[in-house]
Design goal:
Distance between the termini: 99 Å
Radius of gyration: 29 Å
Strand order of the largest sheet: 1-2-3-4-12-11
Number of strands: 12
Length: about 260
Amino acid sequence: MTATAKPRRSPGRAFFVFAAILVVIAALVVVAELVARQMVPGVIRSTVVEQLQLPADHPVDVEVDGILLPQLVAGSLAEVRLASEDVTVGSFSGDVAAELQDVPIRADRAAAGGTADVRMTTEQLRALLSTIDGFPAETIELDEPNVTASTEVDVLGAAIPLGIVLEPGAAEGDLVLSPVSGSIADATVTADQLRQQFGGLLEPLLQDRSVCIASSVPAALTLQSVEVVGDEVVAGFAIDGGIIDDPELQANGTC
């Protein structure tokens, strides 16, 4: 008997089958990436809103760098950026922009850390400074790189207008305003000259004034810098990566 020859498969057909499989896999990967892009930012946003006790509908923009699927498989996100306007926590409010590196998906360890900027308008700074007893917060104006305030002092029964120029900064986590100069009757003098001329009369106005920020934000955030940029005050924070998994760092700090 003569053996029947088996039909040979066409190499071209095998190639097209393989190509079709690759296309299907690629399509599934794209769909999975799109789904991840929809879900992951939503989860992060919900966590931020809950942590800061913001209204449920408060807008928070979330961006995650790179392709998500490999990061999800690896268990961490390389960089997460957050932005939200008119965020109010305690007496502290402003527009927030933050970034955090190496953020674990399961919140079972600390992130690598990050930074945040809070931009305040003049009105928002006035509201914050109104917590200082005896300080003329309602007169605050921004004059880059400083802050100005005005008041009146009683000298022998006469009300004398006094303008004060204050340098903003950060010390031990507090926002600090340090007097650098002043003006009386259109004459500009240094803070030391004012002290010498008026002695203890102006001393309460010429002291450094500080506002505790720690009690308004999670303990993981430490105020590092405060500066006037244009018509805004920019407060810079360092973020401890432990905010991800440490309840003590997630809770507000203390003054």
